[in-house]
Amino acid sequence: MIRSWVQAADRFVSPILSRSRLERMACDFFHTNKHKSFIGTRHFLDRVIHALEEEKQDVFEVGEDLLTLLASCFNLGVEGNSSALRRCIAFPEWCSESSNDLWFGAKSSPLQLACRGLNSYFNLLPSSDDFNTKILAQTRLSLDSIEPTRVLIVGSADLLRHVECDRRFFHVAGVEAAGRAKFSIVLAINKTSMMMDPISWYGFKAKLQDWADIVGSRVVIPISQTHCSWKGAYRLIKVDSHRTEVSPKLKFIRSWKPLHNLDGNLQTFTPLYPRKLLTSAIRSTSSILRC
User: In angstroms, what CA-CA distances link 9 with 34, 36, 46, 49, 260?
Assistant: First the structure.
């Protein structure tokens, strides 16, 4: 059935809709509507035509290789704003502003997406200022949740100006793609997500630099100057791509200040008090890390 749909829609193949994308759309359409009593070639063709009519021509696309890298390094599960033509298969779930994309598996509109408890991604480069403002406000509200929440955002170089007072937003990297405009990668994350699903910064930096070398882009990664500043964090964590250890003896420490170097595999949060409890916790954690 899927093969017959692709053959029937072959005339729509163009620079916007490659054959591989058409095949993916056919698979998405089938898996989304297979429970229905009858769904035929005509229905698929109608929805493809609608998708092509609604597709924006000036969309800045982040390459699927970079999106796959970001989804892997930050453990992302939801592509917040995409379309049936451009969605990335690295994300199990995706959202779209078009109601037509519901036929291809879109979950909801980006502005209706509840980011609380999710690891989401948004590309704000092709969006209007009004849409960007709403997404940033929605993100800040979601970060207030006690559920682990993170949102990775690709946007203009001055994206952080809109949230400069919120220290839960980090400038992860600046990218200057060959022959294209610069853009920033910004991570918004709450302390629960940092604790429960830590990130290997060293691994991310290495992979991003490798990607840049392959595609001929320039990246600036200011992670070593990133300053975490949440209050209420209270643990000592070993951030590693293979394992994470948390010292239970730090659970009563209510405030901390971080060391500035986040480049390596070990993030040490230095609590402000009590000193005696801190010393005991560090000894306990050291014995754990030697195992």
Answer: 19, 21, 10, 9, 55
